[in-house]
Write a structure and sequence with these properties.
It contains nine helices and nine strands. The protein is an alpha/beta fold and about 250 residues long. It has a single domain, classed as TIM Barrel (Alpha-Beta Barrel), CATH 3.20.20.190. The longest helix is centred in the middle third of the chain and has 13 residues. It is globular, with a radius of gyration of 17 Å. The structure holds SN-glycerol-3-phosphate (G3P) and calcium ion. It holds the Pfam family GDPD.
């Protein structure tokens, strides 16, 4: 399994193939791999009964036919909702997946970047660890978050976890912060406009993977490839695949 240390960047489908399917659904993840992705990124929230639900927002309002906060709904209630029809009628009937369902769908060789959007809790940690162990995913999952304290809490409890630092501020500062934090960071996930080739070189030299988000335009994709990043998080895995193939 390769999760980024190679000459060409890893193609990471953002929320699956968000540009061509309803984000964070099993259909979007399957399509990402069909389009040439070698990894996927997804977002995780926690349901009222402690299940890990794949959804970007704290509410279901934007991406389903329902309303309400995920933290106040049970997994049974959440999975009755249609998470695909809002995007296009051919996706009607797609559900909000659980993280377990994604782990079942995606072969273990493929990297999954799990971004935690909900607050830290012991219950969250216990369920995440249980799933990583049950599906043998400790090596092929990178858990990222903008909440660096949350990453620290997870790493303290599970040191072998691969942690990815998401951020929108100065790249070099964050590389240093990643080193100084004691979190034992595996990867940096900068907003793509923050990176330059020297920054990337510096991070790689310090043993960090660099996975910028979310790059969709050809010129920006090209720039990231030239900067030597380890992977690119994109809504259009097919676009990046063609670029890397020289098409
Ligand atoms: O993980 C990278 C990217 O997904 C972070 O932003 O808002 O799309 O979750 P967002
Ligand atoms: Ca995300």
């Amino acid at each position: 399994m390769t999760i980024g240390s190679k000459h060409q960047p890893l193609i990471i489908g953002h929320r699956g193939a968000k540009g061509s399917a309803p984000e964070n659904t099993l259909a979007a993840f399957a399509l990402a791999f069909e389009q040439g992705a070698e990894a996927i990124e997804l977002d995780v929230q926690e349901s009222a009964d402690g299940e890990l639900i794949v959804c970007h927002d704290a509410t279901v309002d934007r991406t389903t036919n329902g309303k309400g906060r995920i933290a106040e709904l049970t997994v049974a209630e959440l999975q009755k909702l249609d998470a695909g029809g809002w995007y296009h009628e051919r996706f009607a009937g797609e559900k909000l997946p659980t993280l377990a369902e994604v782990f079942e769908l995606v072969p273990v060789e493929y990297m999954i970047n799990v971004e935690i959007k909900c607050p830290f809790s012991e219950r969250l940690f216990v369920r995440l660890k249980e799933l990583l162990e049950q599906y043998d995913r400790l090596q092929s999952v990178v858990v990222s978050s903008f909440n660096h304290k949350l990453l620290q809490e997870l790493k303290q409890r599970l040191p072998e976890l691969k942690a990815g630092l998401l951020y929108e501020a100065n790249f070099t500062q964050h590389r240093k912060m990643a080193e100084g934090s004691g979190i034992g960071v595996f990867s940096l996930h900068p907003q793509f406009r923050l990176i330059g080739a020297e920054d990337v070189k510096d991070a790689l030299a310090h043993g960090l993977q660099v996975y910028p988000y979310t790059i969709n335009e050809l010129t920006d994709l090209q720039r990231a490839v030239e900067a030597g990043v380890s992977g690119i998080i994109t809504d259009y895995p097919d676009r990046l695949k063609r670029l890397l193939a020289g098409e």
